[in-house]
Amino acid sequence: MGSLSSAKTLGGVGGILVFFPFLSLVGWVLVLLATKEISETVQDKSIFDDALLAAITAIIGAVVFVAFIVTGSIAGLFTFGFGFPRFLLFFGILGAFWVFTIISAIFLKRSYEKISQRLNVSAFATTGLLYLIGAALTIVFVGFLILLVALIFQVVAYFSIQDRPPSPGWGQPAPQTSSAVLVPQQPAMSQQQTQVESKFCFKCGAKLPSVAVFCTSCGAKQA
């Protein structure tokens, strides 16, 4: 079972390590583990699945970009000029890197929007939106500044997590219940006193029920 306190620590520390070049990969691993903790806590597997897909596509994009550098395409481009094949290779690999970056940002935005809704931390939704905008604008290099802002919001978002998740109905008005209490009506019972006719003993004069055969006082038989 996941823990929000662990997610807060992992995500916050990981978000800070992302700023350091040699520790960036470790930071992203910690952020991914943080999304896993949140996913298990709120019992929404899609949160971690989207974050994992974002990580996979980002890795693919990074591998494409590194392969572009390792093969010496950039060096050949500036050494021998813009030959037609190298021109296509340059923009083809750069375009592939850009596409994978956008796809990664889309998955990350989906994951962070779900976290924002479940934990009521709006900074996650802002982070996801900034990531997507920054990824889309990396082709003109302005997006890198927006991605930097997104990284800052990411740290703020994780450190804003509360240790306990809000209740399932958080943020929604509580259902109104009628204050009127229905009291079952009890049928009124008529209390009628049965009047019993009486008579008097002819011998001693004691008062007796009309159906008495013998006097309860003197024992004389009644007529």
State the helicity in percent bands. 55-70%
The strand order across the widest sheet is: 1-2
Which series of helices and strands comes N to C?
HHHHHHHEE
Mean pLDDT: 79
- Distance from N terminus to C terminus (CA atoms, Å) equals 95 Å
Low-confidence stretches: 169-174, 177-181, 188-194
- Total of DSSP H or I helical runs spanning 4+ residues: 7
Cα-based radius of gyration, to the nearest Å: 42 Å
Shape: rod-shaped
Number of domains: 2
Largest sheet: 2 strands, antiparallel
Q: Helix/strand-derived class?
A: mainly alpha
Approximately what portion of the residues adopt beta-strand conformation? under 5%
DSSP, total strands: 2
List keywords for this structure.
single chain, 223 residues, 2 domains, 7 helices, rod-shaped
Overview of the structural elements:
The protein is an all-alpha fold. The protein folds into two domains: 4-159, no CATH class; 198-223. Helices cover 61% and strands 3% of the residues. It is built from seven helices and two strands, in the order H-H-H-H-H-H-H-E-E. It has a two-stranded antiparallel ribbon. Helix 2 packs antiparallel against helix 3, helix 5 (84-119) packs antiparallel against helix 6 and helix 6 runs antiparallel to helix 7. The longest helix is centred in the middle third of the chain and has 36 residues, at 84-119. It starts with a helix and ends in a 14-residue tail after the last strand.
